[in-house]
Amino acid sequence: MADRLSRTLLRTNQQFMVAEVDSQLGGWVHAVVAEYIEAGRFVAIGGLVVDKNHRRKGLGRELMEHAEFFTCAAFLNDVVTMLCASK
Fold first, then answer.
1. C-alpha distances in angstroms, 25 versus 38, 43, 69?
2. What is the pTM of this model?
3. Most buried pick, 3, 11, 54, 84, via CB within 10 A?
4. End-to-end CA distance of the chain, in Å?
5. Torsion of CA 16, 18, 81, 61, to 10 degrees
6. Superfamily (CATH) of domain 2-81
7. Domain residue spans in the chain?
8. How many angstroms separate the CA atoms of 84 and 81, rounded?
């Protein structure tokens, strides 16, 4: 996973944002600019994880707000969640 993260952090069309709570990792979101022939350009959420001890406190919402900001900064209008899973 460390290798994939290292490569992701170098890409300008992707953002990996983390949330820190009390000096510990509370969660993260991975946003990717994608382009499909049919759909055009959009931001896809490649992953959204919130630590089980920090769920139901708005942390996921805050991370998604940062992903939406990235979308606006990339001059795009749509955020699409590609995968939805609960652990």
1. 37, 24, 21
2. 0.76
3. 54
4. 18
5. -150
6. Gcn5-related N-acetyltransferase (GNAT) (3.40.630.30)
7. 2-81
8. 7
Residue with the two structure tokens 């992701």: 8
The 10s digit of each residue's pLDDT in 42-85 is: 888 889 999 999 999 999 999 999 888 877 776 666 655 554 45
Which tokens belong to 74? 């990339």
Q: Tokens for 19? A: 């949330």
Sorted by sequence, the CB contacts under 8 Å of residue 28 that are 6+ apart come out as: 16, 17, 18, 19, 47, 48, 49, 63
SS percent in the chain: helix, strand, coil, step 5: 30, 40, 30
Cβ atoms of 59 and 67 within 8 Å: the answer is no
The answer to whether 35 and 44 are in contact (CB under 8 A) is: no
